[in-house]
Specification:
The protein has 443 residues and is mainly β. The chain is 3% helix and 43% strand. It is built from 1 helix and 32 strands. The longest helix has 12 residues. The radius of gyration is 21 Å and the shape is globular.
Length: 443
Amino acid sequence: MMSNPTVVRRGLLARAGFLLTACLLAALPVAGATFAPPQVVTDGALKYQLSRTASHLAEFDASGSLHLVYWAGGQATNPSNPSFVFYRRWALGGWGTQVLADESSSGPVRLGGRHPSLALLPGGRVLLVWQDHRHCTASGNYIDNIEIYGEVRPAGNTAPQADIRLTTSAAPHSGDNGYAPKVTVTTGGEIHLAWYDFTADPTVSDIYVGRWTDGGPVPAAPSGATRATDASQRGGSPAFTVPDLAVDATGTRHLAWVGGTLAGGNLYYGAIPPDATTASVTLVAAGAADFFDPPHIAVSPGGDVWIAAGDETVTGGEDVRLWRLRAGHTAFDPPVTVAAHPARQFAPDIKPAADGRLHLAWIDERSGRHVYYGLFDPAASALVEERRVTQTAGNYERPALAIDPQGRVHLVFEDNRSALSGDIVHAAPEGSASARDGWNLYE
């Protein structure tokens, strides 16, 4: 289905090759990344997790503070096993106090939110969104009316904030649920939201979007959710799930999502122009996507659309691949393999750099399970840098990239130890004042 390009720098390189690569990178505007030993952010008391699609979770503001949102919970949300959405902020002195964001309860009983997303609003405010179970009922197994909620945190404020209900659906069935929202904000302050929703059909979800202008300290809820895809136009199958979202300079919304709720679903792309309400739907790769590690989408400064995913069609495991839709084109280029190995590589995140190259992070199992970072050059169609971020193998999941105001790369990811225990981990650039005294998990 795809041809593999030559990948620069696999494994350990000879010193001469390393020095040559370092010299080449020094001449380019974006430097490669080196990382300090990863630091555990959470306390291990709960099963802390990142969202299913590990994007729009960690963002730097202009002052250099990193804002992070994550959640804790198990396989289901109910009064016996509630979920929690947490917010935290990092500066050079380290991580601040963990803040409970959602106020999700049914009367006196806590239920909770899951799969949050984050965006920075003008004025240093932080917008958090999540799927919320507070309107669900015991008779519906607490999954009969999941709505999208959010809150706005004023700049520097860690006090509890009032939750904002962002969707109000009232389907006449018990599958009235919206899941896994993604939020982003344009430079002009316009807020865009995407999620998947069973409002129209309790068995087949579609992609929904919302768009509204930030009109004050607390943005008003969007006037109504827009159904961006229609199951009837694809014969009622498959369900469209776990979208990721990017918005370009023209205001066009670009989405990537999965067909179905298992590994091996189709990889889809859709675009919604500023004056439109529905998405064009393009099948990018049959059988390539994974509901449990969904595709990520990004738009480069030049307007190219990039989708990154672990390709499930690879025999014996996944390879990390990129699909590129050049600005002004209507069809994707043939996919490029950026991490090929007999062992599995999967769950990539992607961030375009100012010079058109791409920062990548992924999970790699070539020598035990580790988190890897790479810098991809589209001109060479290959990685020009690759390095292992974690020092010892572990059950790591869902790496997410964040770029600070100096262009340095940070990573957050899950350490998924068991069904009941997990932590969020932060890998900062080497030399930054991020590690706390006494930290020794990876030593």
